[in-house]
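[Automated response] Your request has been received and processed.

Submitted sequence:
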Amino acid sequence: MIAEQLQLILQSAWAALPTLLRAAPITLGYALAAMLLGLPLALLVALARLSGIAFLRWLSGVYVSFIRGTPLLVQIFVVYYGLPSFGVTLSPLVGGVLALTLNAAAYLSETMRAAILSVPRGQWEAALSLGLTRRQTLRLVVLPQAARVALPSLGNTLIGLVKDTSLVSVITVVELLRSAQLVIARTFEPFGPYLAAALIYWVLSSLLELVQRRLETRLARQG
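Generated structure:
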């Protein structure tokens, strides 16, 4: 009996695999889009939190606190179902990417802020004494060093985004998890498709972790 059940699960997982593999690039695309769009926003938020302007520090602090203090699922609902109340209607694709971007930017901003603060103050003073402006010092001296410090956390955030994309399935985005649910709706066998989806998430995360480690090793050799 158990052997037959296991065989049924493996068969359903194998049957669902082609559909899920077609959805995997969508999942990865969502994560990469949120990461690439979130990085510039995160840098602006991090600089605002380090700014000498009290209002900017307060505003950026509220943003980070709100995003970090509320569930991503609620944020997705606010963006997709809440914004139409103000006349802003987004497609599931845009709404999902926007919610993930805003969420990622809040976490990335803290990573960047800590990385910038980790650069010794003497680096700023030396660059300024050579005639560089504060903006040039930030761009040419501080940020390259901060990027090395932030790389592990940036990689972890991207891996987390790959898993978080499963939440956009609630707004009908046909990514990996939603594809598994659609397969289950046809076959009425949930374990196999969910197991196959979990394995694909695991493989994607493992590959990204491998890339992250190789980048860290290369940067360590260059340093």
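Summary generated for your ticket: The longest helix spans residues 2-49. Residues 23-222 form a domain with the MetI-like fold fold (CATH 1.10.3720.10).
If you did not submit this request, please reply to this message.
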